[in-house]
Every structure is written in structure tokens, then in C-alpha cells.
Design a protein that fits this description.
By secondary structure, this protein is α+β, with helices and mostly antiparallel strands. The chain has three domains: 59-240, no CATH class; 264-357, Pdz3 Domain; 360-608 and 658-706, 2-enoyl-CoA Hydratase, Chain A, domain 1, CATH 3.90.226. 40% of the residues lie in helices and 17% in strands. The chain has 21 helices and 24 strands. β9 and β10 form a beta hairpin. α1 packs parallel to α8, α6 (158-190) packs across α7 and α16 (595-607) runs antiparallel to α21 (695-706).
């Protein structure tokens, strides 16, 4: 049976491993003209040729494709529709059905014209914005703003565009004014020397802060390099192939390479751009912000202050991720204070002490959960990492095997493997780890276009652990995590516990180093960046694919996002679900024989647990608030609304922390390493403390104890 290349990686949208691949592509090298123009054209030609020769499902480059590029690019660079007029679209309309031909000829005519119009509108909008902010706002008027940018149409004329800016800036000022009033009231209550300030005075300060923010915001837009705009255009094109195919300009490519070293000094959060906001895309396990505990996925960063200068925070709204990172990173041991807006609308100041975010923080580790005279094993695997660099580095399968051996030495009654928030990694690592729990057999199927599926299997006879197993997943368990959960479920080897489904990413990507791809023929325009593209899909051994559907657990637990649209299926151009023939495999002979009773017992516990009921209530509240996009611009109405938000948010604090505490202990074999330094000891104690009150983990343990092997 054909073996799968050991180095190939499954790479999800939040974690990229650069695989340098040199492929022979004969570029035409048209008469490109000046160097900057030549570079853009080389990039476009290379992107086009690679996509249509190597992508899993090459798009048909025709008039329909052209129309999508036209619409999507204009929306991508003006999502809030505060720059372009409808007349601009009418002017650019002549390109709408010509872009397909332009792409094939490495012609950037549409991009050039749209870019020129955008730059002109950018200057005009800056004038509108500052004219609006020169005058006080009247917050006694009964008016409102709809914050749903996606449904908004382009302005028909200058007057409508100016009115759009007026309402937007009034909303931003109102938001800041209300926060200032709240902070002033708290300070006045706390300190006798602080007096309540007049509303007009605070309004002027709020307006000035909004002005400063937008001066910086406009400057950031105007300071963007041409290659960044070219990248936006390329990614409009690649995005029509699938959500995970993407062009990285040189600086972005370098950012991802650096991020893989594990030596960035900062807080340990991955950021993403969401309209005007930089938001939290991922919390790195073991990082400073993970230890601090308050920062969460989805939080929008409003301001960043340095600990030594917390009176002068920098406004993050409107700032690009690249620049925002510079304010958040810093020297080890220094403090940074993030002001964030939670999904429920609550504002929170989060102080975090910067530290080196080490790769070791993402390695597998285990602990013992004790109940009376019985012990259970817990393994946390943050990602499926791979050993690229030799014996000095870690391999996820080797590390999980080592943790299992420690737990076996402790005579555990069962094991919980936690894959929550594990976004993927090494495919070979998944195969090897599944092999620790089964004797031998297929693990996953991989299919490239025009080829028969490859059945990838654990062909190493023998296993490391054959006892009861529970695997924890959630909506952010993706890619390699889904392969593992699916294999364990298909074999009946363990019980999958978690959110209604995992993320739903069933595609495989490789990253092409474009400098290597073109060789020396384009030395004068290097560096060119990189292209990440989808080359295969993977399938369960039962023939289905996690693509779009994810892996549905055997036992469902409530979570904060249970009513929030999250996952691959929410992406407009995601590849479709399909099925292939099942592989031949033998189910686990000791599969749980009482799964229905396990589900019933879990549902009963959840129904009787007030914390779980709060989680379900909170999830519904988030859904309702996300749907309420119309915001009042009357001060009294808005303030009453915000106070109600704060009061409601207070109800949900620490809802995922159990009032009961698990007894958590380190493995005997880990004690020497844990006690090596005070820092190591503190890390272990902090991790054990978090585990001990983890509500979902406690339910997973209860499920593990209920399972009766066949």
C-alpha cells in the first residue's frame, strides 16, 4: 500500500508550517516594464499558474469568476462601505467581465484603477471625518446606526457618504463618552478628590480621542506598501478557490516563519483583523495571556497601554495587525494592559506580563486526577507538532507515548486526551498517535484530484495503551485533531466528548516558496513571498470527510459558542462535503457497550448543574446580542443599554469554573523537572489549578468512569 510522505503537513487557518517546495513552472515573463510593475506581474502569473496546475479543485477562470473577483475585491478593501460611491463601481464596471482575461495575461489593470480610485476616496473620507469631529455631537437626538457592514449598500452620492461618516463617528464618540462617564463615576465614588466632570467636557475629550485614533488609522492606510494592496488583490483571487489558499507577501511569510521558532517575546495570542478591529484568534496554551486567564478568543482589542505608562493607552481601533503587534510585544517581564471588548459587549482591562512564548508550552503533558484510591490520567495535546530538526526537538507521537507510559506506571483506571483548541499539525503525527491506541490498521484516507485514495495506516504492530479512553474536542479542534477523533470514533476505541461538532476542516495544504519556484529568472524582483494552497482532501476510514461537517461527538457538552456560527461551513467558498469508499478495518473489540446509558447519565448531570445551565444561557445571549446590530445614538438610551450589558455580563463570570475541585497531581517521573526552578514549579501549579476547576474536564472524567468496555 502506498505510503504517505512523512513530511507533509495538514495546516489549518490559524497555524502555518512553511514547506519549501521548488516546482518547475515555465513563466512567460511578458514585457513587464519597471521593477515594481514586473514584481506584481510575476506574482500574479505565478499565483495563476500554480493554482490552476496544483490546487485540489482549480476554478474555472471565466466571466462568472471575473464578476466575483470584481465584487469581492471592492468589498474586501472597503468592507464598511465608507469610501467607494456607487458611481465608482459604475466606473469600474467595464472591468467586471474582463478580469479573467487580465489574470491569464498577468494584467493588473482592474487592480490599478480600483487602487487609484480608492486612494482618492481615502483622502476625501479623511477630510469628511475630521470636519465632522470639529463640532460637538448632539446626543439628545433620537437616531441610531446599523453596525451590520455586510448588509450596507454603497452610498449613492457625496452627501450620503458624509452622513455615513457622521453617524459612524458619532457612534464611536458615544461609545468612548459612555466609557469615560463610567470610569469617572467609579473614580469619584472611590476617591474624595475626584469630582464628576460635566458631560460636555467629557464629550470634547471623547471626540478628541476618536480624532487621534482616526488620524492614526488613516495614516496606517496611507502608509501601507503597494505589495500589501497587491496581496489583498491576490487573496481575493485565491479566496475563490477555497478559504485556506492564500498568498503571503514577503513580510507575512517571514512573520509565520518566526512564529514557528517559539521565541517571540509577548503575550502569546494570535491576532486577526476583523473590520476595524484587531481581535483574538487563538490563545497559545501555556503563554502569558493563557496563564492570566481573562483574554479569550473573539475579544476585540480596543486599547493597549504599557505598564509604565498606563495613563496613555494607544487606541487599536482601525489599526492593522502588523502595527498592533508592535505595541503588544515587548521585553520579557514588562507589563502590557489590553482593553478589550468581550463578545457579550463587556469592556475589560487585562494586565499581562510579557514573557518568552516557548515552543515547550505546546508540548504534550500529563497529570493524575485522583478520586479516593483511584487514579485517572489526563493528557493535554495543544497541537500535532513534528520533529523537523533532529533528535534535539520534540515529536508529538513520541511525547504522547512517553506520557502514556508515565500514566501506566501510575496504574490509572482510564485516560482523557484533551484536544480542545488543537488546530492541527502533522499528519504523520496523527497516524502515529492513533497507533498508540490500536494494534494496527488504517487511520485516514487522503485523496488528490485524479488519483485513487491513499489509505494511510498504522502498520506498526502493537500498542501502548489499551484501557478506557475519552477524547475531548470543541469547535476549535480542527484538521489533524479531527482525523484523530474520527479514527478513534470509527474504531469505537474511545468516547468523543465535546461541542456539537469540531471545526470541519478536511483539506490539506502545502506552502510554496515563490522565490524557489521561479529560480534565478526573477532575481531582480525577489523576494516574492509564498503561496499556501490546498492540494488534497482527507477522509475518515468510514468513507466520510470532516470537511464542513466536522466530527460529531458521542456525548455533547454545552459550550459558549453553541449558538454562534463558527467553522468551515461558514466560509463561502469552502470545498464541499463528499464521501468515498470506506477502508477495510476491524472495530475495537472492547468498544463501550453502554454508550446510550453514558449519554443519558451525562445529560442528567448537565441538566442538574447550574454552571452548565449558565453556559447554555450565555450562548443564547451571545447569539441574541450578535443579531442586535442597530445601536441608539441617544446618550441616555445608550448608557442605560450599556449598564444593562454590564449587569448581565457579571452573571456569567467564572461560569466554566466548577465549585468542586479535582485532586490533581504530577506524575512521579515529572517531579524532578517540575521542581527544577521556582518558575517551573509555578507553571505546574498554575496548570494543575486550572485543571482542578475545569467544569468540562470534570464532566469528561465522570463520563470516563461511566464507560463499560465490551
Amino acid at each position: 500500500m502506498e505510503k504517505f510522505p512523512k513530511g507533509l503537513q495538514i495546516i489549518n487557518k490559524l497555524r502555518y508550517v512553511i514547506v519549501l517546495v521548488a516546482i518547475g513552472i515555465g513563466l512567460s515573463f511578458y514585457n513587464y516594464g519597471e521593477a515594481s510593475s514586473k514584481k506584481d506581474k510575476v506574482i500574479m502569473e505565478l499565483v495563476y499558474r500554480v493554482l490552476n496546475s496544483t490546487h485540489f479543485s482549480p476554478a474555472t477562470i471565466d466571466d462568472a469568476f471575473s464578476a466575483k473577483v470584481y465584487t469581492n475585491f471592492l468589498e474586501d478593501i472597503d468592507f464598511s462601505k465608507r469610501f467607494f460611491l456607487q458611481s465608482d463601481l459604475d466606473l469600474l464596471q467595464s472591468h467586471k467581465l474582463e478580469i479573467d482575461d487580465q489574470i491569464k495575461q498577468a494584467d493588473l489593470s482592474f487592480f490599478e484603477e480600483a487602487y487609484e480610485v480608492y486612494q482618492e476616496r481615502l483622502k476625501q473620507s479623511k477630510t469628511y471625518a475630521f470636519a465632522v469631529l470639529d463640532q460637538p455631537f448632539d446626543f439628545t437626538l433620537e437616531e441610531s446606526i446599523d453596525t451590520d457592514d455586510e448588509e450596507r449598500a454603497y452610498a449613492e452620492n457625496q452627501e450620503e457618504l458624509q452622513e455615513r461618516w457622521r453617524k459612524y463617528l458619532k457612534y464611536r464618540t458615544l461609545n468612548r463618552l459612555e466609557e469615560m462617564v463610567e470610569d469617572n463615576a467609579k473614580d469619584a465614588e472611590k476617591f474624595d478628590t475626584v469630582a464628576l466632570k460635566p458631560l460636555a467636557e467629557l464629550e470634547a475629550k471623547a471626540r478628541e480621542k476618536v480624532r487621534e485614533t482616526h488620524e492614526q488609522w488613516f495614516d496606517n492606510l496611507q502608509d501601507m506598501e503597494r505589495i500589501d494592496w497587491v496581496a489583498a488583490y491576490m487573496n481575493t483571487i485565491t479566496g475563490l478557490y477555497d478559504p485556506h489558499t492564500q498568498y503571503f507577501p514577503p513580510e507575512k511569510k517571514e512573520d509565520f516563519e518566526v512564529s514557528m521558532t517559539g521565541q517571540i517575546t509577548g503575550i502569546g495570542a494570535q491576532l486577526q483583523q476583523k473590520g476595524d478591529y484587531v481581535s483574538i484568534a487563538k490563545i497559545i496554551t501555556g503563554s502569558p495571556c493563557w496563564k492570566q486567564g481573562d483574554l479569550e478568543v473573539g475579544d476585540k482589542i480596543l486599547k493597549v497601554a504599557q505598564g509604565e505608562d498606563d495613563e496613555n493607552p494607544v487606541d487599536m481601533v482601525g489599526m492593522k495587525v502588523r502595527k498592533a503587534v508592535n505595541y503588544i510585544r515587548g521585553e520579557k517581564g514588562t507589563e502590557v494592559i489590553l482593553t478589550v471588548r468581550k463578545l457579550d459587549g463587556q469592556k475589560m482591562d487585562i494586565p499581562i506580563i510579557r514573557d518568552v512564548v516557548e515552543l515547550e508550552s505546546t508540548f504534550a503533558k500529563s497529570a493524575l486526577l485522583e478520586e479516593g484510591d483511584k487514579k485517572y490520567g489526563y493528557i493535554k495535546l495543544p497541537k500535532f507538532y513534528v520533529n523537523f530538526y533532529g533528535d534535539a526537538n520534540h515529536d508529538c507521537a513520541e511525547d504522547v507515548e512517553a506520557e502514556l507510559e508515565k500514566l501506566k506506571d501510575a496504574n490509572v483506571e482510564g485516560v482523557i486526551l484533551d484536544l480542545r483548541n488543537n488546530g492541527g499539525g502533522s499528519l504523520q503525527g496523527v497516524i502515529d498517535i492513533v497507533g498508540l491506541f490500536i494494534d494496527e490498521g488504517p487511520v485516514v484516507q487522503v485523496k488528490a484530484p485524479g488519483r485513487r485514495p491513499q489509505v494511510l495506516e498504522d502498520d506498526d504492530r502493537g500498542l501502548v495503551y489499551d484501557g478506557p479512553l475519552v477524547v475531548m474536542t470543541n469547535r476549535f479542534s480542527a484538521s489533524a485533531s479531527e482525523i484523530f477523533a474520527a479514527a478513534i470514533q470509527d474504531y469505537g476505541r474511545g468516547v468523543i466528548v465535546g461541542s456539537q461538532s469540531t471545526f470541519g476542516k478536511g483539506t490539506v495544504q502545502n506552502v510554496l516558496d515563490m522565490d524557489r519556484a521561479v529560480g534565478i529568472s526573477a532575481n531582480d524582483v525577489k523576494p516574492l513571498g509564498a503561496l499556501k494552497l490546498t492540494i488534497q482532501k482527507y477522509y475518515r476510514i468510514n468513507g466520510g470527510t470532516p470537511q464542513l461537517r466536522g466530527v460529531s461527538p458521542d456525548v455533547v457538552l454545552p459550550d459558549n459558542y453553541m449558538h454562534t456560527p463558527i467553522g468551515e461551513k461558514e466560509q463561502e467558498y469552502a470545498l464541499p462535503y463528499n464521501e468515498i469508499e470506506a477502508a477495510s478495518y476491524q472495530p475495537w473489540p472492547k468498544a463501550a457497550r453502554n454508550l446510550e446509558e453514558v449519554r443519558t447519565a451525562s445529560a442528567k448531570r448537565i441538566k442538574g448543574n447550574a454552571k452548565f445551565q449558565l453556559i447554555e444561557e450565555y450562548a443564547q445571549w451571545i447569539k441574541d446580542e450578535r443579531e442586535n446590530t442597530v445601536v441608539p445614538l441617544n446618550y441616555e438610551t445608550y448608557r442605560a443599554q450599556q449598564q444593562a450589558y454590564r449587569q448581565k455580563a457579571e452573571r456569567y463570570k467564572k461560569m466554566q469554573k466548577s465549585t468542586d475541585t479535582l485532586a490533581v497531581k504530577a506524575n512521579e517521573a515529572d517531579l524532578e523537572k517540575i521542581n527544577a526552578t521556582e518558575e517551573d514549579k509555578a507553571k505546574a501549579e498554575n496548570w494543575h489549578k486550572n485543571i482542578s476547576t475545569d467544569l468540562l474536564l470534570q464532566e469528561a472524567l465522570a463520563i470516563l468512569k461511566d464507560v463499560e468496555p465490551g
